[in-house]
Amino acid sequence: MKSIITSIILSSSVLGNTLPSEQRKTNKSMQATLSPVQKYLQESSAVFYDSKRRVPFVYGTIVGSDGLILTKASELDEVEEFYIRIGAERYKEPTILNKNETWDLALVKVEAEGLIPVKLDGNSEVELGTWTVSNGASDRKTRRPRPGIISANKREIKGGSPAVLGVGFKMEDDKITITKITEDSGAEKSGLEKGDIIIGFDGKEVGDDKEFIELLKAKAAGEIVKLKIQRDEEVLELDVELMARHKLFGGPQSRNDSMSGDFSERRSSFPMVLQHETMLSARSVGGPLFTLDGRFLGMNIAAANRVEAFAIPVENLKSSLSEMKIASGL
Fold first, then answer.
1. Residues 144 and 266 in one domain
2. Distance between CA atoms of residues 309 and 136, nearest Å
3. CATH classification of the domain holding 78
4. Residue 219 near residue 242, CB atoms below 8 Å
5. Rounded Cα–Cα distance for residues 86 and 67 (Å)
6. Is 269's pLDDT higher than 60?
7. Same domain? 111 vs 181
8. 35 with 100, same domain?
9. Do 246 and 267 form a contact (C-beta atoms < 8 A)?
């Protein structure tokens, strides 16, 4: 059954470039099937717009009637300023309250009342082959549903780009000496310089490069570390933001990647995900994932490739939201 449904979805997507519109997956019968869920997408998802280009770049999931929204944190890092639309309403001054690097989540607040949040008291237990609905394209007023299916059991997605300072270094006279500063890195922004000697990392004294590398491996991109350095006769402590290696240096792409197009920058290193076969892009993650009867399963967190997408299960989303609210003083 799963393979038949998958074939229908993929075939209709591929043929969509040649068939007349009434025969595509957006035909009236398909839209009639999805229209009940469109209501939930409309009510409980937000659209984030790049203020400079005035184009949508990611979705959000409404988790509080008072204007609390969860979205994909790494996508927010790609724009300088943004505004949000919920339904036809525009919110010009959203506030980022907190980020969770483990799940790549950002908690955002807009000044609003009476919003309709997703239901976080459910569960994500569904059979393989279950139909799902996510946000597809969007205009200013309308969220358009995009169908998919649950295609794998819940599981951890390992991997991810390691965190880096953005420096080159070597052992010189038994000291960790910085030999290079990478442009636009956390190291450059913090004021580190070539010739600085690293003597401490987050309150721990370090004496050799192997110990330093092990301490760095335990950190994640986005974390702020306190680096203790010696510069000539002066000892300084600098706060340095770690960055994902691929952000600074790029990374290898598979053949499937090169065919996939606009997948998410971060699409691995999640403690638990629901995998579904839905043709999403980096611009269409961040929003809710529903069943055909409107049951909330989780929040889309990554477009992994052409047809695979990952969602944070509702149980994990609920606990992460609780932690972020406490950290934000809510």
1. yes
2. 13
3. 2.40.10.120
4. yes
5. 10
6. yes
7. no
8. yes
9. no
137 and 172 inside one domain:
no
> What's the number of CA atoms in the CB half-sphere (13 Å) around residue 190?
26
Q: What ranges in 233-291 are assigned the alpha helix state H?
A: 245-249, 255-260
Q: 204 is in which domain, residue-wise?
A: 163-248
**Do residues 35 and 71 both lie within one domain?**
yes
Question: Tokens 């998802």 — which residue?
Answer: 45
DSSP state of 237: E
Q: What are phi and psi of 20, to 5 degrees?
A: -65, 155
Contact status, residue 135 vs residue 31, Cβ threshold 8 Å: no
Which strands form 45-50's sheet, in the order they lie side by side? 89-91, 82-86, 45-50, 55-62, 68-72, 105-109, 95-100
For residues 92 and 241, state if they share a domain: no
Residue type, 110: V
Output 83-86 pairs: Cβ under 8 A, ≥24 positions apart: 83/48, 83/49, 83/51, 84/46, 84/47, 84/48, 84/49, 84/60, 84/108, 84/110, 85/46, 85/47, 85/49, 85/140, 86/45, 86/46, 86/47, 86/62, 86/110, 86/112, 86/115
pLDDT tens profile 73-130: 989 988 999 999 998 899 999 999 999 988 999 999 999 999 999 999 999 999 999 9
CA atoms of 47 and 43, how far apart (whole Å)? 11
pTM of the predicted model as reported, rounded to 2 decimal places: 0.71
Q: Per-residue pLDDT tens for 276-323?
A: 999 888 889 999 999 999 999 999 999 988 789 999 999 999 999 999
User: CATH number, domain at 222?
Assistant: 2.30.42.10
